[in-house]
C-alpha cells in the first residue's frame, strides 16, 4: 500500500478525515478555518523569528 508523506497516512485515511471534517464544519466554514489556521502559523513563525534575534 502506498503511503503519503503526510504523517504516514494513505489516501483512504486522508479521504475519510476530509469527509469527517466536511460533515462537521460544512463547506462554507472550512475556508474560514483554513484562513485562521494560516494566520496562526504565520504568527507563530514571526514569534519564533523574534526569539532568535
Blueprint (SSEs and pairs):
Blueprint: H1 11-25, H2 30-52
Percent helix range: over 70%
In terms of structural class, how would the helical and strand content be classed?
Answer: mainly alpha
Poorly predicted residue ranges: none
Alpha-carbon Rg, integer = 16 Å
The counted number of beta strands is 0
Per DSSP, the total helix count is 2
> Strand share of the residues?
under 5%
What would the average pLDDT be, to the nearest integer? 81
Can you tell me about this structure?
The N and C termini lie far apart (45 Å). The chain has helices spanning 11-25, 30-52. The chain is mainly α and 53 residues long. The chain has one domain (11-52). The model has no long low-confidence stretch (mean pLDDT 81). The chain has 2 helices and no strands.
What attributes characterize this protein structure?
53 residues, mainly alpha, 2 helices, flat
Concise account of the structure shown:
The chain has one domain. It is mainly α and 53 residues long.
